[in-house]
Design a protein that fits this description.
The protein contains 8 helices and 10 strands. It has an 8-stranded mixed β-sheet with strand order 1-2-6-3-7-8-9-10, sandwiched between helices. Strand 4 and strand 5 form a beta hairpin. The two termini are about 25 Å apart. The model has no long low-confidence stretch (mean pLDDT about 95).
């Protein structure tokens, strides 16, 4: 176990609705360790830092867990703006708290995974940056782990057969976008991680249960193929016989090895 400095309820952004906070844990054994930002968002409707799996601190990584606004409190692109603001705050305050500003990874499950992939592909694209603080500081991340994070291409959920198979995702996207995907095609394009795929994206680890009946594994496969087609370092791990959730210990080794490889090259 590492000696860990713990900071709670740090305000990182002040949008009109309320102040947004994050928790931060920084192992002290290493000078300026890499940092992993966890996004504890579910269904784009709830966010609870109590869900944060802090075990990566035992691997020597600093970790942050962020609070975001959620649906129906706000609609897109507000949640994305919050995530971007959090990355900028973490980068701007790296020296103060003692972690590396140029080795920031992001990690989430389900909607949190979707947002992690969005951060990975969208880099410093101005149209989705928002104004949540620290303008001019980069919101780029250096690695992303996305567990069951579909949809990466929102247009998939305008297809009748997909809508009938995955009504929960359709409802979540409707609340997030303020309308159905087919009613908000430009906003749906803007909020889709796949829109911004380029060879400049950082390494990505995609983990998905083979039997996921909440979000479609085939859509994550398509996203992986889009990433690899342009030369992105994308790793896809499909878990046989597994649904939308699993015992976290099942994938600890994969996640730790991925962040060790990509943030400590």
């Amino acid at each position: 176990m590492h000696d860990i400095a713990t900071y709670t309820d740090i305000v990182y952004s002040r949008p009109p609705q309320r102040a947004l906070r994050l928790d931060l844990r920084v192992p002290q054994a290493e000078r300026r360790p890499p940092l992993i930002m966890h996004i504890p968002v579910g269904g784009l409707r709830c966010c609870d830092r109590a869900w944060t799996p802090w075990w990566l601190t035992d691997e020597g990584f600093a970790m942050a867990s962020i609070e975001t606004r959620v649906s129906p409190e706000v609609t897109a692109p507000a949640i994305v703006h919050d995530c971007k603001a959090a990355v900028r705050w973490l980068r701007a305050n790296a020296e103060r708290y003692g972690y590396a500003p140029d080795a920031i990874g992001v990690w989430g499950h389900s909607a949190g995974g979707l947002l992690a992939s969005f951060l990975a592909t969208s880099g410093d694209i101005a149209e989705v940056e928002g104004d949540g603080g620290h303008p001019g500081v980069s919101s780029r991340v250096q690695a992303a782990c996305d567990q069951c994070g579909a949809p990466h291409d929102f247009s998939w959920f305008a297809r009748p057969e997909i809508k009938s198979r995955f009504p929960g995702v359709v409802g979540n996207l409707r609340a997030y976008l303020g309308g159905l995907v087919e009613e908000k095609p430009e906003l749906a394009r803007q909020m889709s991680p796949q829109t911004y795929v380029s060879r400049n994206c950082p390494p990505v680890l995609l983990i998905h249960g083979e039997n996921d009946d909440v979000v479609p594994v085939e859509e994550t496969i398509n996203f992986h193929q889009a990433l690899t087609a342009v030369g992105v370092d994308s790793t896809l791990k499909i878990l046989p016989g597994i649904g939308h959730g699993w015992d976290g210990a099942l994938t600890h080794a994969d996640i730790a090895a991925f962040f060790q490889r990509t943030l400590r090259p």
